[in-house]
Every structure is written in structure tokens, then in C-alpha cells.
Predict the 3D structure of the following.
Amino acid sequence: MKRFYLAALFASSAILAMAQCTPDPSNTSPGFYSEILTDGCVNANYSQQLDIVFAADTVVSTPFGPLTVPFDSIRINVSGLPAGLSHECPTATCTLIPNIGVTPRTCMLINGLPTIATGANGTFNVDIEYWVTLFGSPQPFSEAKTVGLTINSEVNVAVVNANSVLTAQSGSGSFQWVDCDNGFSIIEGETSASFSPTVSGNYAVAVTVGECVALSECFSVTVAGINDINPANFQIFPIPTHDQLTLEIPDFKGTFSLRIVDTAGRVVHEATISTAKTFLDLSALSKGIYTVQLVQNGLVSVQKLIVG
């Protein structure tokens, strides 16, 4: 599990700046490894290696019959990469000079910052130019390949900050809230679209869609406990609850506003609390996780509620 999302994003940027691929020696049969690369996303750093293994020679038809000849050189040309991406080879011209007795292999690093989505099943072209010497004369051969690379739309990392509840606006993907004030470490268990901090601070959400991870900006949330209004904290029970929830404020003073908020940030129940002990009918709520917010004089205290 990724513990520090921002550090991971910085690390990927550093990799792009200094990357150079090395062919994987475990690939021994001629071919592309692989013919479909991992998906990327618009405005998310991308870096994937494509390994290619070649045959050492080819059979050429001559007036004297078939003749096996070794390749003198192999050159790779790439076209049609998604906007914002480029390719790098171990040599500047992407040319390989095979050695006798050694399997010809090379690699390409496809990297950059994609700027336009390709739509489903995106591709780019790899044209291979082989040269052999035939009866003292250099002769070219060519091969065209298509490699799959899909760039998806940009991950939506917009967040609404309202009533001390942060709600991610992405309609898809998975979520992980992180603590900006603690090295962007993950907050255990906070993987819903909505997050109600119990401690004042700065928070962000990492949104994962497919293979893409994007981090929102940090949002400041100020949470004041009931003890900032009154020396006593409030209590709710039973947890989990089914139909009726009991709320107690041991040292009750004044009137409070109560809100119950679901994981999408929607207020599903509101009430005015004017007694030290209140019974709430929650039979209309669906099973799930909610946040109970108690508000007085602009100060908010929150507790997590489970309806089972």
C-alpha cells in the first residue's frame, strides 16, 4: 500500500527526468514485451518500458536458393505516440548493431506527460528497419508493428469543503484521504468519497482510476470539539445502531444543531437538540457509515456513526 502519495508523485517525476531503459535479459524469444502497454491518464506522469527481442538472422531468396544472412543493423522508428509522450532508446538513433552469437535485443522507454486522451484502445506505430549484406551490397528489409497504449481522461480531483466535511467529486475510482500535515500519510479506513475530519488540519484525497493516481490540493478543516463550547463531550449509542440512536451531552448548556451526513456529503438528517438526552429515530436511514455533527456558535464536533 502506498503510504506517501505526494512522495510517490515526486519520485515519478524524478524517474522521468533521468530514466534510461535497460533490456530485460529474461526475454529470449523474438517479439514485443508487451504489445499492449499499461494505460495512462491526461496530466499524470507516464513511464513504461517496451522490450523488443529480434531474430539474429533472416532467410533471403536468391537465384541460388534460400540464403541465411545475419542482420548488420536494426533501426527502430516510432510514430503516432499520444500527445505529450516521447520515446527513448539506449542509443540516440534507436539503432542496434547485433553481435555474433548474442541475441539482439533492445528497449524503449515511453514517457512524458500526456495532454490528450486517446479514447479506448489507443495505439502507436513501431517501424523496424533491418539491414543485411547480400553479395557485398547492403539491402534493407522492413517490418511494421502496432503497440497498444490508451490514455484516459484526466482524473477528477475536485473536492467540496462544506460544514467540515470534504467530499471528492470524482464519479468513479477509489479514494484514499491523506494528512497533508503528516507527510501526506494515509488516514487508515478513510476510503469513501466523503471524509469528516475529527482533528483540525489540512487534508487531501488521492483518487485512483484504473492505473492512474492523482492527488488533490490540500484543504484546511477546522474542527472544534464540544469541550470548546462546553466542558463535556457528547456521546452516541448504540454503535452500530438500527432504528433509534441515543445522544447525550453530560454537561448540557444551550441549544445545538445536529446534522447526520452520509459518505457522499449529503445531509440525511437534521434536528435541534435542546435537552441533555435526546432519542433520534434513524429508521429511515440505509445501512452504512455516517458522520454526526453537533454545532453550536459556529463550532462543530463530529463522531462517526454506523447504521447496521
